[in-house]
């Protein structure tokens, strides 16, 4: 298997234990190496290991920096995202803060898209502000319009495509060109694509962040984050800072993520097929004013999606022409959809999106009316006929069936 092999092939073969005469294939061929420390046979062995490590080899020396299980998962993230090095964190948000705290210093300015994952705003308002790092959140739809928000101390352009809640597509190659021209580091949250449906490093981004909690793990049973980069200087900076701050994950979580990610392509394809069928059905309902799903033909970002994405997933939002009481009834009446945050697991989930959290989002004003209710659906791996029947009966209970 070469690095040219298809990602479908590489996901089945990366991260296997070295091949002895006989070895288990299931579940991943590589044990969860649980340990706090590593023992060396001699002082010379220890010195030699550190010498090789300082030259860039990925050798195990202490539990916090990860063992073979972690290294295997890092390799998998590199293959998915097309990066040279991956760093693991105990959650997606941990991966975001690891990145920003590694690359920003007191006095720097962070320019961020207004469609990014909500807690990034909280990070900016609390930790970053306390460290004298200033942030601006604005629409990243038109890269040239970002120019007015640049400051002499702007260091990072932080984006997410498709964006959180409304799946707003961004023109990543144009953003990369803008970042290059202004000497900014382009950091992107690629949880939506998870290295399969979208690959921002290949489109010019410098750093890609993935909440492995979602589609990589795929089974709603662990929290995980990863930071993937390709530039050696950036890698060195993140490496030094990750070591300084002690970000670390358990071997069991790394092992579970490796088990989960083997089926990432088939899961994503099925989520995407189910979601498109749901879009088709939703589009025929009078209560549905807008569908936010870039693979859907009427989505405002559909052309960008066709140009830049290599797949889709099960995530979609709908703007519903309903009262607050009706939307409550609708969400409560759903039987297959659990009410909860998160997505990317096997199961369907629903979240009634607080329109307050969309008020600062330019895309919302452009594409939905003030009085609509937004509901985000994660379309799971259930039979799509059952999912649609469930949506049908819930709309009926809400008195919103056409
Ligand atoms: C869920 C999510 C995160 C955070 O991941 P956690 O593992 O829950 O911390 C970050 N970015 C996006 C786009 C997400 O959907």
Jot down its keywords.
5-stranded mixed β-sheet, globular, 7-stranded mixed β-sheet, 2 domains, 13 helices, binds pyridoxal-5'-phosphate, 402 residues, Aspartate Aminotransferase, domain 2, Aspartate Aminotransferase, domain 1, 12 strands, alpha/beta
List the helices and strands and how they pair.
Elements: H1 7-13, H2 43-54, H3 68-81, E1 85-89, H4 92-103, E2 109-113, H5 119-130, E3 134-138, E4 154-160, H6 172-181, E5 185-189, E6 207-211, E7 225-229, H7 232-245, H8 251-261, H9 264-282, E8 288-292, H10 302-308, E9 315-320, H11 324-333, E10 338-339, E11 349-353, H12 362-367, E12 373-378, H13 384-397
Parallel strand pairs: 2-3, 2-4, 4-5, 5-6, 10-11
Antiparallel strand pairs: 1-7, 6-7, 8-9, 9-12, 11-12
Helix pairs in contact: 3-8, 4-5, 4-7, 11-13
This protein binds pyridoxal-5'-phosphate.
